[in-house]
Amino acid sequence: MEAAISTLITEFKKYAGKDGSSSTLSKDEFQSLVSSQLSHFVKNASDPGTIDQLMGSLDENNDGELTFTEFWQLIGKVACQQGCFSQ
């Protein structure tokens, strides 16, 4: 599990550093990350409307960017769905 957590942190930082703050994901960075890293787990991952809806549901402070903590919610939801755990 330690390797999985390290990978999640590394990938978040890789995408977050592309434009603006290196500690948050912009909409474009988030779409790029989801499309390339979670396309099998997020239905319609390349659809801008899907990304808008998903980002809106995760962006707790409505600042248009996702912190790692906000992003982590998506990882939890995806893991629960894949593991057939109730939410």
Q: What attributes does this structure have?
A:
87 residues, mainly alpha, Recoverin, domain 1, two-stranded antiparallel sheet, 4 helices, 2 strands, 60% helix
The class by helix and strand makeup works out as mainly alpha
CATH class: Mainly Alpha
Number of domains: 1
How would you classify the quaternary structure?
single chain
The number of strands is 2
Instruction: State the end-to-end distance.
Output: 21 Å
Low-pLDDT stretches: none
- The spatial strand order of the largest sheet comes to 1-2
What is the CATH topology classification name?
A: Recoverin, domain 1
Mean pLDDT: 93
Q: How much helical structure, as a percent, in the residues?
A: 55-70%
Protein architecture, described:
This protein is mostly helical. It has one domain: Recoverin, domain 1 (Orthogonal Bundle), CATH 1.10.238.10. Helix content is 60%, strand content 5%. It has a two-stranded antiparallel sheet. Helix 1 crosses helix 2 and helix 2 crosses helix 3 (48-58). One of its GO terms (cellular component) is perinuclear region of cytoplasm.
